[in-house]
Amino acid sequence: MPLGLSDNLFQRVVSALLLLPPVLGAVYMGGYWFAALLALGGALMMLEWCSLTGGQGPVAKVGSVALLILMIAAQMSGQFPSITIFFAFLTSLALLGCVLIGNNSSRIGWLLTGIAYVAFPIAALWWVRAGPGGLWVLWILLVVWATDVGGYFAGKGIGGPKLAPRVSPKKTWAGLIGGMVLSAVVSYLMNVIYPFTENPVAVTVAAAFLAVWAQVGDLLESAIKRHFGVKDSGGLIPGHGGLLDRVDGLVFVAPAVVVLFFLAPLFGFE
């Protein structure tokens, strides 16, 4: 294996190099290009969710993807009065899904929860790109990627006590701290190269805390996979598993950044 890389790590590097250009290109172009990326990503995520949670036939899969895209299209076109109302609607959908799961209506419950789970980050990314701008979307992506990279290498290199052994046996506290540190460093360096905020200290600190939140998203997806007895959500991305495996941190971080923008006067996040 080149440079002594493990087979899995080599696959991760190659997959990242292949995926980065179209993703960053769509973020830069914005508009229909970015909308197309989000629509494609949302559809693939929803199909993976249906396969992961089981019991979803072709009609449910097609219907949930169609409903997801219609909801996102309505939000993008301004049919929902505000992102706040849309987030409240998705929260209600997720809570209803959880109630149904708890009351033995698991098939429809997992379906509704999945629609909210996928729609949250897509709506958030579109809102950030259309408002604060593309550099903020890039920052969100870098925070998530740095969390993954820092966590991977710190966890492998340092090891130590496990973070949540019953949910994800390989994750360590060292990995969490490594992800926080690299996320903060990358955030600071990005603002040096492309000044996108007047308060670099606030976004650097926010990056470190968002790394923790990304890890929560990672652990939640791990818990769901463990519940259904599967290792990966799919096999779409070599070295990473499915798309849901790759964006589990982004699912949590993107909506959190929208919340931070609304709380900007309190924290200087602007």
Throw out a few tags for this protein.
single chain; 270 residues; mainly alpha; two-stranded antiparallel ribbon; 10 helices; 2 strands; 77% helix; 3% strand; globular
Task: Explain what you see.
This protein is mostly helical. The protein is 77% helix and 3% strand. The protein is built from 10 helices and 2 strands; from the N terminus they run H-H-H-H-H-H-E-E-H-H-H-H. The protein has a two-stranded antiparallel ribbon. Helix 5 crosses helix 6 (134-158) and helix 7 (173-193) crosses helix 8 (200-228).
In summary, what is this structure?
The protein has 270 residues and is an all-alpha fold.
Largest sheet: 2 strands, antiparallel
Q: Give the integer mean of the pLDDT values.
A: 87
Structural class computed from helices and strand pairing: mainly alpha
Q: Could you give the order of the helices and strands?
A: HHHHHHEEHHHH
Helix share bin? over 70%
Please give the radius of gyration in angstroms: 18 Å
Low-confidence region ranges: none
E-strand count: 2
Strand order of the largest sheet: 1-2
Question: What count of helical segments does DSSP give?
Answer: 10
Count structural domains.
1
Report how far the terminal alpha carbons are from each other: 45 Å
Q: Roughly what fraction of the amino acids lie in strands? A: under 5%
Tell me, briefly, the overall form. Answer: globular
